[in-house]
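Question: what's this shape?

___
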Amino acid sequence: MLKGVKKRKLRKDLPAEIVKTSEELIAELNNKQKAFCREYCMHWNGKKAYHTAYTDITDDTAKVNASKLLTNTNIQAYIKYIKEHIEEAVGISKQKVLNELDKIAFSKPCETNETWFKLKDFNKLTSEQRSCISEISTEIRKVWSKEQEKEIQVPFVKIRFFNKIDAIKEINKMLGYNLPDKIEGKFQFEGDINITYK
């Protein structure tokens, strides 16, 4: 079910028999048909979308049935609806994207450590701190133990964070901070002026 669905007509350029409110359209499709439409809009591969929505079928069956579904007027209308209301369909908004970028751009990686050499337990990290982690890798190393006077195996954990500078650049781009400054003034020219835009 789409979040925040309102009663409104779909595009007027659709055939008259399938111009319905979004609620009417959604009510006429079963869950597997809606799943097929959402999956199809991700990669435009009917057979793959059908395999995702309808499991335990052969490739030939998926290909044939996907073609049939794509000729269904309600399926076509729902696909158009998803394409035109993609943010609503997947629950993504500009504010949500900015919130995620904000976590990365202004994160403090040092807060994931208890000491210089000891990481906090993963379960003690906040959801915001976890959102900034791009990769966690582990390995077992052999180190010499003075206490035991022998080599012992010690687990090491390496954490990689998303790039803060890249996140800040994306925020600047989304908010228009990178736009060139506007220069106002009056100029007088004589003769022809040729302006080239690159």
In short: Residues 1-12, 14-18 have pLDDT under 50 and may be disordered. The chain has two domains: 16-92, 97-175. The beta strands are 133-145, 150-161. DSSP finds nine helices and two strands in the chain.
